[in-house]
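Protein modeling request. Please complete all fields; requests missing the sequence field cannot be processed.
Requester role: graduate student
Desired output: 3D structure, token encoding
Chains: 1
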Amino acid sequence: MNYEAIGAISSATILIITIWGLIRINRLKRKKVFISTQMSELDDYNTVWSNTMGLVRTLRQRKLNVFYGNEDIESEEDLNIEDYNWAVYLQELNDCKYFIAIVSEKKISSIFYEAGIAASSKARKCIFFVKETDKLLPIVMRKASSIKSNVRVINYRTFDEIRGTLQNTEILK
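Delivered output (173 residues):
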């Protein structure tokens, strides 16, 4: 038996496993951000999607670990609810440290379910960006920021306002 070869293989294997572990730990340490937008029946899905993808790119350039469930869904026609990976989606929602909801229209959407899950954890910081708070948010979501210290509700008109607001939050610091 060639013990030197076995030792070299074992050392290389240990090195690879160690490097893989360090990379994984580094990824886990990065701030995990879950971005949610409405998905179906929006008047202008493509505009919301492209603006949100710009926000995703900005956050990733800042070395944040960003999950955006619509990332690969460029148009409503691309949305296939049956093939969507709901297990990954729910795990990412559960694991995120920061939750950002962008509510652009008054439509029934899972965004409200996601926001409820996110806001229920004191350890998770939540920002709900809303075009018109009084018209688009249920009363509980409107009142959440005055009741829960981890929730902020912010009115916005443009995605540039969202980017500007995020510049001044702990997410990007």
